[in-house]
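pinging the channel bc i need a second pair of eyes. not urgent but kinda urgent?? the chain im working w is below, pasted from the shared doc
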Amino acid sequence: MSEPHDGTPSAATLYLSGRTLDDVGTTRDFVRSALRREDPDIVHTAVLLTSELATNALIHADRDADLAPTPTPHLAYPRPFHVTVDACFQEICILVCGKGSRLAVVKPKKDREWDESGRGLALVAALSETWGTHGDAFSRTVWFVLKRTPTPIVA
């Protein structure tokens, strides 16, 4: 059950080394904690979408973007990134910023429908109010917005 809140804006940022795929789980825990007073459905969606963006930051975020990570949770080289959760009056904005890469775009999946990769940004586009990206070859931020319904605190 969510705790009531007064709609006061709050923001928090987590910086990660990008040395291991375990950083994705750390981002999920961070978002859950930052949004602990929100509606559980919003928290679940925020955690899912952040997980997708954090995975993208680790796997696609540099000059070796076409190389998959090693089979172990440890990556061959670090890909540092950070996650910001910004809960404003009527919306929650989550930003994932990492090393630069080509422009993030949603492309229709042409492979088999049971393939596990290639759907992250499509999920972000489908489940968020809006999303976007900005950056260049040095830094890229991908963000999304979810609607927030503040619950007044009853005295």
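so Residues 65-70 have pLDDT under 50 and may be disordered. and The helical segments are 23-34, 40-59, 120-127. — does that match what u expected or am i reading it wrong
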